[in-house]
Each structure stands twice: as C-alpha cells, then as structure tokens.
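Recap quiz, item 2
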Amino acid sequence: MNNFIFQNPTKLVFGKGQINLLSELIPDDANLMITFGGGSVTKNGVYNQVIDALKGRNYIEFWGIEPNPHVETIRKAVKQGKDNNIDFLLAVGGGSVLDGTKLIAAGIASEEDSWDIVLKGHADKQIHYASVLTLPATGSEMNTAAVITRSETQEKFGFGGFYPQFSILDPEVTYSLPPHQIACGLADTFTHVLEQYLTTPNQSKIMDRWAEGVLQTVKEIAPDIISGNRNYELMAEFMLSATLALNDFIRMGVTQDWSTHMIGHELTAIHGLTHAHTLAIVMPSTMRVLKHQKHGKLLQFGERVFDITEGSEQERIDKTIEATEEFYRSLGLTTRLSEEGIGNETIEKIVKRFNERNASYGENSNVTGAVAREILVSSL
Amino acid sequence: MNNFIFQNPTKLVFGKGQINLLSELIPDDANLMITFGGGSVTKNGVYNQVIDALKGRNYIEFWGIEPNPHVETIRKAVKQGKDNNIDFLLAVGGGSVLDGTKLIAAGIASEEDSWDIVLKGHADKQIHYASVLTLPATGSEMNTAAVITRSETQEKFGFGGFYPQFSILDPEVTYSLPPHQIACGLADTFTHVLEQYLTTPNQSKIMDRWAEGVLQTVKEIAPDIISGNRNYELMAEFMLSATLALNDFIRMGVTQDWSTHMIGHELTAIHGLTHAHTLAIVMPSTMRVLKHQKHGKLLQFGERVFDITEGSEQERIDKTIEATEEFYRSLGLTTRLSEEGIGNETIEKIVKRFNERNASYGENSNVTGAVAREILVSSL
C-alpha cells in the first residue's frame, strides 16, 4: 500500500425529501447563485422543490450550463457572480452542471481567466459551492474534480479544486431521467471504479474489495434499471454507488489509470459523444491492448465480479474482457467506433493531440499517442 | 435504504514516516497538550518520533490514560488543560488514549463535570484534537465516539462528539504490539463490522458489500498476523481495515445493532476483561439467541465471508455461527464466560443493570435485560 492522505469533508445528505433541508444547509448570510442546466429540472419538479425550500432567501439564478460545460458559458456566469458579489453557489443538476459550477466557483475567487485555471489543472481558491444532484453518474457531487470543454478549439480538460460543502441526493428525482442518461450513468459509475481498480494487483486487499463491491452492485442492479424499473431502493443503490465510485473512498494507497478517460475526452471533444458512451467504447479496448500489464487484476476482476473461473488464465482474461464489453452493450450502449461512424481520421487526430502534449497516461505512464492509436484501432 | 446524513471530515494521514508531518498538521498557534497511555510509546520509538517531529514547538505532556480510560484520570487532565489554556490535544496511543482524549477535549471546552458529559451521551463542544494511532482496533481515530469507565462504580458508557482533526496511521508502529493486543484489535475490527451489518437484510446492497469487504479482508489477513508475521503490507491492511470498520463509511442508510457491545461493556466494567475479548465471547451468543431475527443476514454472511453454501438454511446458519466463534478462537481468544471464571452472579448483575435503565438495545430495540440473560447464559 502506498502512503496517502485522505480527507473528504463533503456532507452527503441522502434520501427522500432531503431537498427540504436546503435552507438549513446554506448559511443565512450567503450571497447565493443557483446554477442550472437546460431546464429539465422545471419539468421533473426539482426546480420547484429547490425554490420552495429557499422561500424567503435571496438568490440569483444562472441558467444554461450545457452538457460537457463550455468555458464560454462559464465565463458569463463568473462575470454575473462577480457583479453580484456571489459567495455561495448551489448547482442543481447532473455532473455537467456541477463541473461547470466548480469552475464558476474558481473563477469568482480568482482574477485568472477560467480556461487558464483549467489548463493549470487546479484551482487555488474557490468560493463555497454545493449541489442538488439529479443524475447519478460522475461522482462530482463528492469530489474535487471537474472537466470543462472549450468549444472553439474542441478541447476538453479536467482540473481539481476543493470539495463541495454538501450534496443532496434524493433518488426520487432520478425516476424521470431519459433511458440513455440512465445507461450512461451506470456505465460511468462502472468505469470510474475500473480506472481506480484495474491497475497493478496486490496493492490493497481492502480497496480491491470495496472497488469490487461497487462493481458487483452496479452489475446486479443494472438489468432491473435498464428494463425500466424505477423503484426507490433500486435507484438509491444506483445513486449511492455512483457517488462512492468516485469520492476517493476506493483509491486509498493505490495507483490509478484514467487513460480510458483521457482518450474518451477527446472523442467527446471532437465528436460530441456522451462522456460515458466514450468510456463504453474505449475501456474494453484498453483492456485488450494492456492485457499483459493488467493480467493479475483482469483475472481477479473476472472471478470476483463476473464469476469467470474456468479455463486457462488467458481464456479467463479474454472472457472477462468480453463480459465487460457485453455489460456495456447490455446497457444499450454501442461499444465500437464504427457504430458511431468514427474512423481512422479521428484516431489520427487524437494521436496527434496526445503526441503534441507528450501524453503518457495510465498507472505505468505508458499510454502514449502510439498506445492510444492501438486502443482506438481495437475499438473500430 | 434509510435517509441519512454523512460527513466525516477527519484527515487520514497514512503510511511510513508520516509522523514527520505532525508539525505541518498542527496549527502553528496551537496551545498543545500531548496525551499518552502507560509508556509503551517510549519503548517502541513512537514517543521519540513525535517529539522529533514537534521540535521547536511548545507543548505539555499528560501521561497515564489507562486501558478503558477512567473518568477520574480524565478529570485530572481536564484541570491541567484548563490551567494551561490548552486548545489542541494530540493523542498518542491506541483507542483508550484516543477515547480519553475525546473526553478531555470535551471537558476543557465545557464547565460540566466530565462524567455528566458521558451520561448525557454527547459533547456539545470539544477543543480540537488529533491522534497518532499505535493500535489498530477501535476506529476511534476517525469517528466521534468514545467509551469511558467510572472505576468507583464499575460503570462504562459511551458518548459522542466531533471528529478528530487528523489521525496519523503508520503501520510500522504496530510491529512491536503484544500478541494479545493484536488479537483483540482483529476481533474488535471484525465485531465492529458485524454490529453494523448483521441486522435486517436488504437494506443496502452496496453497504453490505463494503461491510463484507472488511470482514473478508480481516479473515484473510488474520492467520498470517496471528502466526507472527509483521510485514508492512499485512499490517497496513489491518490498520486501514480497522479504521474503515468504524468510521461511518459502512453504515450509510442502514440500521445498526450494538447490543453485543453494550453487554460487553458491562463485562469489562465488572471484570476488567479487555473490550474486544468481551466481544469474542458475546457475539457468537448474540447470533445464537437472535438467529431468527438475523436469519437473512446470517445466511448472507456465511455464504459471502465463510463460503458456507451447503445444507439447509438452518444448517448453514448454525455453521456460520460456529465459524464465527472459531474465527475468534483462531485469534487465540477464549469465547466462553466459564473460561474466564465468570458465572451466573455476574450475569444477574448485568441483567439488573440493564433492567434498571430499561435497556432495549439492538436494531429492533429488543435486547432487554431478559434477552441479555439469554445471550450471556448461551456464552457460559
């Protein structure tokens, strides 16, 4: 186990009717801006719940944080926040609204341009922010990371900052989510765990168990959810699993990969594919290309999550990779670039970008442009 | 899943050499008192590591917090703290030093007598405190709870307060622990999980997996540790598992039991048996007496932790309870009251105490004096 320092101070407020607690959770003297996406919260009742809970409080609203939030939009929100002396942000939405709000929080606290903060990779300061989460997927509600897109250059990069003050997770608000978003949320959760788990074996028994626990849970609940079932217990498991998949709880003392994410971000930036959909396409290929490096963990993952125990080690690894791809397909997602009309031209564009920034991702820092090409070709 | 609010802000500083970070972790302007137990830290080098790390800082030392810390000792520390305007405490030791320090932190912040704080069940205020942990067992390094003994009346009760600012966990400091303390630490960790897990089934799939993950890990590492192996990876798994067993991470949205602990505290208060040793004696009996109520969870526990899958449900449950008792015995602990010379007189004393306070512990609030008698008789 490697040395580590862990501290996650976010207050997780989970369950039915918890949006009612908003007024207690936000300091009385906060100068509040509430941030939203495109308007689904006005249809599913979440907007009204939030507004009712904040009756009598002063706040302004900022609307229009898009999926894969654009820095161009964030800059507008930062200006509005500064003009109004905003010192507390409440994001109401999914991971994109949250990620955008993290950059707004950093932008308001700083004199730097928002894209410069993203390129620097971390925010030195952020005003306080919190969330009412509407889509289980990114884990952004309980971590420090955010991913931002610069639309004019088709670039997408992440940065880190501070944790949310609190996040309210009411599984009931997920019932009305479109099936594709649900599928992507499940794929995102599953892949987040794999990025922290499918690395070098024997780093931590207890972290392995916890990572496998999230994977087993998502695998167990996914068929019911995909079939359209929306009961509370099921969506509660999904929502909590998505948060626990990426809130630093399963990465104590272990290395991480994230090369699938870095390749996936390029596919989103260039083609607009939904983030988690890119992961469903790239992750099985990452496994295929790096199966020697990930040998031990692939065997363990196959045995403990997919009950694959028969055959030679090589056969079990191949079956595990097939089962992973099949899991993503069972969610209704495609897993091949060709199915999305993406071919060699895009692959070469991504390789060029990786090479230009001397990319070397993954737990062994060996996913360069050349390896990214192998992975993407394997996804065709 | 029940509604819940989770927030654990303790900074966990884990690994080799991390005691060196003490000076960075404690605020420069802190008026510091360091609290210790009986002196083992002077033999194993931890005292010197702490003092070296704090070179140039002002502090006072308080020595002599005993196992099952006595309120009588704590009162002395509180007086010394108040006399010296102490505003930050650093506990250096195991769970008892930590628990005692939690009450010192509450006593210094309050005008109340320390035992009144314990009887009230919670501290309204505490001065900041932190720890350098030397014994993996109680989880006190990352939770709000503490258990205190009043020696003059042979009473032992818990209270809750605030989380430690930070805890430093260096697995290397555990190498020199006496075998009995190691065995008790493993038993304590295992039982903490069972108190939060072995309740009503189907409350949370993901919490079940995480609880089972700690149980599986402890079961896997215990034989090696008990055989005398002290390698770093092994002790790191043990130390991290002990913390994760009782830092609120595995209890989100689920009910808890704790009746074994309440009975065990009486055995410690009356007979001085080591805390975890009482758990090894009581837990198998709690399972036997409440096996109908805990039916579903016993089956799941048996299957997932002890690989018990053969036989009728009743047979599997009986095998699971036997396996649990055998696990405690494999640590070198006795599991029967008679082995410790404890008989009916003590049982009746405990029943009387339970009845006097109208006790009704456990996830269904049905462990009364009468049920405690059944459990203790089953432990004879």
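Residues 178-378 of chain A form a domain with the Dehydroquinate synthase-like, alpha domain fold (CATH 1.20.1090.10).
The CA atoms of residues 286 and 375 of chain A lie 6 Å apart.
End of item.
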